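Ticket closed. Logging final result for Subtilisin-like protease SBT5.6.
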Amino acid sequence: MAPFLSSFLLPFCLFSFFSFSFSSKPIHKVYIVYLGEHTSSYAAEEIQENHHGLLFSVKNSEEEARQSMLYSYKNSINGFAALLSDEEAEILSAREEVISAYPSEGKWAPHTTRSWEFLTGYEGIDQKGFGFVESDWEPSKANHGKDVIVGMLDSGIWPESKSFSDEGLDPVPARWRGICETGHSFKASSCNRKIIGARYYLKSYEAYYGSLNTSYAYRSPRDGDGHGTHTSSTVAGRSVSNVSALGGFAYGTVSGGAPLARLAVYKVCWPIPGPNPNIENTCFEADMLAAIDDAIGDGVDVLSISIGSVGDPPTFAKDGIAVGALHAAKREIVVVCSAGNSGPKPATVSNLAPWIITVGASSIDRAFTAEIKLGNGAIITGQTVTPYQLEGKEYPLIYAGDAAIAGTAANLTGQCLPNSLSPEKVKGKIVLCFRGSGLRAEKGQEVKRAGGAAIILGNAMANGNEVPVDAHVLPGAGVSASDATTILIYINSSSNPTASLGRARTVNGIKPSPSMAQFSSRGPNVLEPNILKPDITAPGLNILAAWSESSSPTKLDSDKRKVKYNIISGTSMSCPHVSATAVLLKSIYPHWSSSAIRSAMMTTATLNNAQGGPLMNGDGTTGGPFDFGSGHVRPIHAADPGLVYEASYQDYLLFMCASTGVQMDFYYPCPKDPLQPYELNYPSVAVSRLNGTVSIVRTVTNVAQGKAKYRVSVDNPNGISVKISPKGLKFNDVGEKKSFRIVLKDRGTVMRGNGTYVAGSYTWSDGVHSVRSPIVVSFG
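Final structure:
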């Protein structure tokens, strides 16, 4: 049987396999043994006994089998996690009832609010219906996601935040089957009618690292990091007025996208032991799979997972998030995941399964500007959210590379890495540092340690004009790559370079916006290039949301400041925007399939910024499908898509047969001649290595009221002929389905080489709805 399982996203961390020595000295590590779907409605106790029996078949005693078991997955997912030697795992994987047995890896990490106000205004409408101010509710629309349950796989939650108040909420929905698990600083009263459930999972984490160090982490659903609190409040936080980040930045009213939705918290990410454990977190697959299994059993409607793999993504069958999400999709639970923060390098996107909505990150129209005046009179606009200010005078200005201590690697001298700066050269000066290696906030800490007056943090060329802001521990500002180069040229050309740094302020209405974040991971899909990823983009740059009060705004151990709300960036921040949109759609259309909700968002996404121009990348280039998928999410447009593309659990199983040859469910054997992966009924079209002609059938479902007639228009990719038949579709009823054929033909007119892609689209229109699907083709 083929193996299977692994996945999670804001940046988390690396991990290697746990070893455990029994008396016979074999190496043991945590394996996930996947058995597919449950074959009948056994009680949980019976399922667990079956799992123990299977494990006992490779152990010396029943006691050893029970001690080796970490998790028994028994709600939807059929399988278990246990300590196994490689030999034991190999024996189990050869058994007929086992689909796969593979190591539980910790190579998963989180991908680290004006954003909602910007989203609704970006659509060119008022803020009603999907409104994000409580006085603007329109009950006939989404009603702010009332009583939809969203499950959050993350680092936990800070329940005392005003964003999680349950004031005015109705009793917990009767269909909820979850629990409120208590523990370290988390009581039963920590749950309420907003946070209706909370659990935590760390058996696989502790199997690798040993017992959790509770001096810097909570052994409970409480969030000691901030990431989980931030994502939870972005999805479903209540409207809270008079809120700002440290220093008063982004002052105003903050709200999640679905403030009346209910939250179910599943804590799966934990600190990596080390000199600064608060900086990096990791999430283990066995723990995440247990959380997804429980979330399915608990009754969530949407799963929001801002976690992803670090490094090369695992195959679908060995990806814990993908496998768990497949079981969620069978029950029409919408699963939304972050794309990752490894851009702008191509082929870096993670969470690649087609039953997952994969979200890239883009900017909003807000900046936190600070004027930098150079000694030669040049004025540069930086960005910052540090509360500290310099006196209104000029300071000596130095490049970090000219102040590095002896022994610093030549390629790192300008990076301001810990203990790399000479206090004798830096004291009292503004220091120009560059991004690249190390953490941004840590660079500011190093300048402060060396006695510097302030930091100017310059982008690397790959970061372009996109400036993520930081609450530095000293005065400072970030600048674009081109402005950093200007400053460096000035330093090198002056015998006495100086600069002054002005007070920062919040500025709204920045144009053009949005643009794609440079850090957002890009396509193509390295596992299956016949599925376009990412699917969509949403705000993820400099997002304000609730924060853990046990974590500083920079997460540095030396930073003792505490905040209730914080500004951070990542696809971890964009993922909950799309999750909230899914919640709102679920509220309006409770019987829609998860694939219909995905389709509604993708086919109504826009390729334009708020000013009507094309979506651009942070480096000034025009964006494309590998940057933003179908485009930028528009929640209100998604509520009336006209037509949707639907795919079932069986369709996904057939896709797995076609893409990987793996049979994921014993009840659905792979056919002898499976369809091609690009024949999955997906809202986008991707064909890899086209050589000649390809014919694809797509099916759409009418979800608009009344009769409708649609006509198709095509934007041909360069060098590709796209023919669609029929050219018109007529619908008489809601729910009616119509199929059409797409024929792609290589005209042979494009110079090609390895990695040559071309893009276009087709759009079905009825005069009211425009149902657009991107087309991406590479040549054979």
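The longest strand covers residues 27-37. No further action required.
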